[in-house]
Design brief:
By secondary structure, the chain is of the alpha/beta class. The protein has helices at residues 10-26, 36-44, 62-73, 94-99, 102-107, 116-125, 139-142, 178-187, 190-193, 197-224, 241-247, 262-268, 279-285, 303-306, 315-328, 346-351, 360-370, 382-405, 424-437, and strands at residues 2-6, 30-34, 52-55, 77-80, 108-113, 133-135, 163-167, 230-234, 254-256, 271-274, 290-293, 310-312, 444-450, 453-458. The longest helix is centred in the middle third of the chain and has 28 residues, at 197-224. An 8-stranded mixed beta sheet has the order 6-5-4-3-1-2-14-13, with helices on both faces. Strands 9-8-7-10-11-12 form a 6-stranded parallel beta sheet, sandwiched between helices. It contains 19 helices and 14 strands. It folds into 2 domains: 2-146 and 352-458, Rossmann fold, CATH 3.40.50; 147-338, Rossmann fold (3-Layer(aba) Sandwich).
Length: 459
């Protein structure tokens, strides 16, 4: 069977997609892991045969509805798990109503849920599609599990001293300007589906800048008053790393690093600090101490995430708690703690489905196989697809050169900060780790068809 895995933000999704790809390839499927444009070009030009197209959301924007209809018309089957996840949503159903619709669900063959909360809400809102909504859990959460901890090596740039990880989630200094983000949100139909969101965008951005200032001041204070550890500040994949380097310039023992998955940084930190970040749940699942820093009353806080861990109200309290955790940790211990997931906070257990006997990735692959038909298993001409991508990338290179020569005429060209190019040895290493962890004996082949597209299949 042909399986096409769409990766939008590689720092967030790549490892989980490679997990899916490795397990599916070991069962005889041919799996393409790629960014969106490479897959769409293959479909558009008739080079890629029908298969499972697994994407990161079913947001009901006109552009996405049209795109998915074209894919369905090619006899492909669409499946999805929402990578934005909505884990921090309030008790209403606004997230699901903004991210799904009857149209996008009718275009899909299977929708995978992170846990009871999102699955039950989706089935309640869209009862006509309840048969195709599955509680599988997320492959991203698979990689938070203690029994897969050996997958994570020390992240690139990790300081020699133990470190407090600061996970940032402040979209106000994103790669796009405020007006660009506003237009993108409007064009995607979010304001039409939720008119109150216009006010929220403006007010939350203002609140975000206040939070940003408080975080900078807290980091400066902790850096000067700690008991011998470093601070690693991890910008969100969509934040400008240069901005944070400027804000934190000269702060001692503080590193601004975005390389590698956030999970590898969590696994190696002695504690994690955040406000309103999904990493809060990951930290607790990983068995690490969580410091939720809330120095002022927030109207637009992610209440669920901020209800977790130690609630810290001042930079002085933050310093004391971080020092206490640092002083009490046995930094020589390298054994991975076995987490009893049945004992995790009841609220988290409703957000995340974790089956200790089977990974979410394995559950998803079984559902894909139940959707298989003769159309989805037609052999691709991978050489032809490789040559197509070579031609497309040559044209892209020419455009990039013109963009540098004539920047005023090519302002629309942007660097793909969400999806850096693959390193062949790195991708092969990750796949080999999965093979070892799952005891796979199959001989798998990685074919790099472009700098952002890899084919994984049996030799």
């Amino acid at each position: 069977m042909n399986i096409y895995l769409h990766v939008e933000i590689s720092a967030r999704e790549l490892d989980s997609k490679l997990l899916l790809a490795t397990l599916a390839a070991a069962k005889g499927h041919e799996v393409l892991v790629s960014n969106l444009s490479e897959i769409l070009n293959g479909f558009k030009l008739g080079v890629l045969k029908p298969g499972i197209y697994h994407t990161k959301s079913l947001t009901p924007s006109k552009m996405k509805i049209d795109r998915h209809q074209n894919i369905v018309n090619l006899n492909c089957k669409i499946t999805s798990i929402d990578e934005e996840n909505g884990l921090g949503k309030r008790s209403d159903d606004k997230f699901e109503r903004k991210r799904y619709s009857d149209i996008t669900l009718s275009q899909s063959s299977a929708v995978f849920g992170w846990g009871d909360d999102d699955v039950e809400t989706l089935k309640k809102i869209f009862p006509d599609h309840s048969q195709k909504i599955y509680k599988t859990g997320s492959p991203r959460v698979d990689l938070w599990r203690s029994d897969l901890s050996d997958y994570w090596a020390n992240p690139i740039g990790m300081p020699k001293k133990p470190y407090l990880l600061v996970a940032s989630n402040m979209g106000s200094i994103g790669m796009k300007s405020f007006d660009e983000n506003f237009k993108s949100t409007s064009d995607a139909g979010y304001f039409q589906r939720d008119p109150d969101m216009v006010k929220k965008v403006f007010f939350r951005t203002a609140e975000d800048f206040k939070k940003m200032y408080e975080f900078i001041e807290a980091i400066k204070y902790v850096a000067k008053n700690n008991n011998g550890y470093d601070i690693v500040f991890r910008p969100h994949p969509e934040e400008k790393i240069k901005a944070w380097e400027i804000f934190l310039q000269g702060v001692p023992n503080t590193h601004v690093i975005r390389q590698d998955s956030i999970t590898s940084w969590v696994k190696n930190a002695f504690a994690v600090m955040h406000n309103g970040c999904t990493t809060a749940i990951e930290t607790l699942v990983s068995g690490k101490p969580l410091l939720t820093y809330s120095p002022f009353e927030m109207e637009y806080a992610d209440e669920f995430f901020n209800s977790l861990g130690y609630n810290i109200k001042s930079k002085e309290e933050l310093s004391l708690k971080a020092n206490s955790l640092f002083d009490n940790i046995n930094i020589k211990t390298t054994d991975h703690k076995k987490i009893n997931y049945t004992e995790i906070n009841e609220l988290i257990s409703r957000k995340l489905f974790i089956d200790q006997n089977e990974t979410s990735a394995e559950k998803i692959i079984k559902i894909w196989e139940s959707l298989d038909d003769k159309n989805l298993s037609k052999l691709n001409n991978w050489t032809k697809f490789y040559l197509l991508l070579k031609a497309i990338n040559f044209m892209r290179l020419c455009r990039n050169i013109l963009g540098k020569l004539f920047p005023n005429n090519f302002k629309h060209l942007r660097k793909n900060y969400k999806f850096p190019t693959f390193r062949k040895d790195d991708i092969q290493s990750r796949i080999n780790k999965f093979k070892h962890l799952f005891g796979l004996k199959e001989d798998l082949e990685c074919k790099f068809l472009s700098d952002r597209t890899v084919l994984i299949k049996k030799k």
